[in-house]
Amino acid sequence: MVSRRGQLILTAAILIGLTIVASAVLLNQVHASADVQAQQDRQSLEETERIIEQLNDQLSDLFFEAGTSEDEPAPYLQDEDSFSETASSFNDQYTNLSTLQSSGMVSVNFSTSESHEGIVVIGNQTTAFTRDGTNPSPWNVIEDATGIPYVFLEIEGGGNQGDDMTVTESADDTELEVKYEGGDEFDIRKNDDPICEGLEGPFEIEIINGVGAIQDDGTVCEFRFGDVATAEELEFDPSQAGDEIVGNYTVVGDEGDTSDFSPEPSEGRYLIDDVITNPHFQVTYHDPQITYQTNVMAYGGEP
């Protein structure tokens, strides 16, 4: 009797031990499965962020190439239907490429109703950066805007050593100064701090959503131009009449107005209004682990 009872106790102990071991194995599998799933989700999110970042750069390039003519180097759209076809073709090609390269799929849709509209002012004749070609007082190139996503200046030459002209955005009064040092040499300052020195004219200054680049034949300087993406006004301030800094310019304003330009070219400058200045895209990314939807502006900023 005692022997049989002992056997039952031993059998029960073995069963309990096996149950504990099985439970431990099962819990380990559950934890391992959760860890694997979390890692897969993290990798999917990282891959999604990388793809969206690359896509944003490509959409900016697409917009600039589709909305720019050789004589007017500015990103804007007048023919919305044509760009819709271009964006649709891009979506088809990108979808096919993404499907071939990974298990994910991307779709891109251009949204006219959510895109930003505005004006473009162009001074395409080499002249002083003055209101009327002679008056050296400060003046607003664009005013009453909700943002100024694009500024392009081509500096052709200077007059007297020490001449300067400044560009100021109204959001936080960031000031960019172009100073002529004589010969073919220029220095650039931002709020009195040097950011690019010894430039040889001619050279270009391009500011896209507040991120600027200055370039001559051998020098590239990058800088941040305040909060121009939300600026209401952009001001030019030439130093003096007569022998001053000369060049040409293109400025794009979301919304915005100007009293100094008309649709008809006058003295090498003119206005283009009712154009799309920053296209809006709806982007969806699918892969086996994640579905991600976002809104992308070709030139950044808030949708």
Describe the structure.
The protein has helices spanning 2-66, 80-101, and strands at residues 105-128, 139-157, 164-169, 175-182, 185-190, 193-200, 203-208, 211-215, 220-224, 234-238, 246-257, 269-286, 291-297. With 303 residues, it is an alpha+beta fold. It has one domain. Strands 1, 2, 3, 4, 5, 6, 7, 8, 9, 10, 11, 12 and 13 form a 13-stranded antiparallel beta sheet that branches. A hairpin with a 4-residue loop joins strand 8 (211-215) and strand 9 (220-224). The longest helix is centred in the N-terminal third of the chain and has 65 residues, at 2-66.
SSE order and pairing:
Blueprint: H1 2-66, H2 80-101, E1 105-128, E2 139-157, E3 164-169, E4 175-182, E5 185-190, E6 193-200, E7 203-208, E8 211-215, E9 220-224, E10 234-238, E11 246-257, E12 269-286, E13 291-297
Antiparallel strand pairs: 1-11, 1-12, 2-7, 2-10, 2-11, 3-4, 3-10, 4-5, 5-6, 7-8, 8-9, 12-13
